[in-house]
Specification:
By secondary structure, the protein is an alpha/beta fold. It has two domains: 261 residues, Aldolase class I (TIM Barrel, Alpha-Beta Barrel); 68 residues, no CATH class. Helices cover 33% and strands 19% of the residues. It contains twelve helices and 15 strands. The strands form three sheets. It has an eight-stranded parallel beta barrel, surrounded by six helices. The protein starts with 7 loop residues before the first helix and ends in a 9-residue tail after the last strand.
Length: 354
């Protein structure tokens, strides 16, 4: 059986961290095969979402119905792995029922925690399911300890996922001033925004990922073959143009190429690349990070298996012998194969300013 969690009520009053180094590996699943791949390759926890706007990866053909979740929870728990449900979009005032129903379903099916962003939904969970473990989603945009402690005091959250805009020193400062467990992103698509605050997709399409669950909704995406090359557009806005044979990514405004000078067309906001923090594992562990999150619920089971296996080996080696830990060349090569643009970065973790 999986290692049990304390309830969020108990954790709210816990002022000391767990004994010994703990660094959970939290892996994505957009389908039942992906969930099983994560479990089989060493994930400690797997996070997933329902097939609706209650989660921030609401793509057609992705996510779980209730039967698949029940199957996945059973499969994971039999192998000592925990399941988290992401309910990390924001309910609308005219119809909060789907989000509240999703919380009820999560409890009924036996998930180990729910990942929430909306304070109103947290309040509903606390009132109706006081023993349910609550994690603050990265979509909650908590970038400082005051915000995290507010959610702890008001709703009893026991873990917070930090946005990918903080330096290592800032992460350390947050951990030093809260008893809430801190989870950080370790690998996957890099977001240069403070998650939960990006309005780019909403500006162009009228649908925010915070409410509809999709950045660049598929219905607004169009591809056109032109004499100048293949074009990708979002609600009519030209995002990128690709030369013959050039790899074409899914069109999002933040990763489009634009005219930034008289003779320069480049990635003006963010270059397609993946965050990869393998080399930072000893530092993250020493400062007290509780969990490493892998991004990619929209990716294939093969991606999940490959990335989970590498990170399982790396975390185990780091915890066993942190002073002699170093990322293996084979690990980095394996991750680069599935990275955006086949390149990686340390992102904000390594920026020279604070």
């Amino acid at each position: 059986m999986p290692r049990s969690y304390n309830t969020h009520v108990e954790n709210t009053h816990a002022d000391s961290p767990a004994s010994g180094p703990v660094l959970e590996l939290v892996c994505p699943a957009g389908s039942l095969p992906a969930l099983k791949a994560a479990v089989d390759h060493g994930a400690d926890c797997v996070y997933l979402g329902l097939r609706d706007a209650t989660n921030a990866r609401n793509f057609a053909g992705l996510n779980f119905d209730e039967a698949a979740i029940a199957n996945g929870i059973r499969y994971a728990h039999e192998r000592g792995c925990k399941i988290f449900m992401a309910l990390n979009t924001y309910p609308q005032a005219q119809n909060p029922a789907p989000w509240r129903s999703a919380v009820d379903k999560a409890v009924a099916m036996g998930v180990d925690a729910v990942i929430l962003a909306d304070p109103g939904l947290m309040q509903y969970a606390v009132r109706h399911h006081p023993q349910l473990r609550l994690h603050l989603s990265v979509q909650g945009s908590a970038t400082n300890y005051e915000a995290i402690n507010f959610y702890r005091e008001q709703f009893g959250i026991v873990r917070a996922v930090l946005p990918r805009v903080l330096s290592l020193e800032q992460v350390r400062q947050v951990i030093g001033k809260t008893t809430v467990e801190i989870e950080v992103f370790g690998f996957g698509s890099l977001c240069v925004m403070v998650e939960g605050r990006c309005a780019l997709s909403s500006y162009v399409t009228g649908e925010s990922p915070n409410t509809f669950g999709v950045c660049s909704p598929p219905k607004a995406v169009r591809w056109h073959e032109t004499p100048a090359g293949r074009e990708s557009r979002l609600n009519g806005v030209l995002i990128d143009r690709y030369a013959p044979g050039e790899s074409a990514g899914y069109p999002t405004l933040c990763k489009g190429r634009f005219d930034v000078g008289e003779d320069e067309n480049y990635y003006a906001i963010e270059e397609p690349t993946s965050l990869n923090t393998l080399e930072l594992l000893p530092q993250l562990s020493r400062m007290g990070v509780r969990a490493i999150k892998i991004e990619g619920r929209q990716r294939s089971p093969a991606y999940v298996a490959q990335v989970t296996q590498v990170w399982r080996e790396a975390i185990d080696q780091c915890l066993a012998n942190p002073h002699r830990y170093a990322p293996r060349t084979t690990w980095m090569a394996s991750l680069d194969q599935v990275a955006e643009g086949q390149q990686h970065t340390l992102g904000a973790y390594h920026r020279p300013w604070k």
